[in-house]
Amino acid sequence: MFFQRLLIVSLTILVCSVNLGRAATLPADELDALKQIGKTLGKEWNFSVDPCSGGGNWITPNAPKGYNNTVTCNCSYESNTICHVVSIDLSRNYLNGTIPPEWGTMEQLVNISLLGNRITGPIPGELSNISTLENL
């Protein structure tokens, strides 16, 4: 009886420590999409830092006042081991051109904010892949 309890406690501790040691990660296709978006928009984002870490150290350094490069993630997927980008805020970046079609691969997006930019052209059809999108 004692050994059964000890075994159960030991297994519980092992499972908890494995889960705690595992950081939630952004799927490769969403990370690739962010990289392509940054390249398309001419942004020098630091992808050696996880955009979902909440640290904000991945955005363009020395950004002007009012400039916004924010990615918000939901990391509650698959027992808190997977993150998905749910919001992109690129307000007041003076971006010009079209919305990158790669955004359509981030199928958990709820919000895309592009206020204060010079966006032109049609909205990419790929955005219709995002069934969760509430605000554009």
From TrEMBL:
InterPro entries xref list: Leu-rich_rpt (IPR001611), LRR_dom_sf (IPR032675), LRR_Rcpt-Like_S/T_Kinase (IPR051824)
Compartment(s) of residence: Membrane
Gene3D superfamilies attached to this UniProt entry: Ribonuclease Inhibitor
Any single Gene Ontology cellular-component annotation: membrane
Residues spanning the signal sequence: 1-23
Keywords recorded for this protein, A-Z: Signal
Membrane topology: Single-pass type I membrane protein
Protein name in the entry: Leucine-rich repeat receptor-like serine/threonine-protein kinase
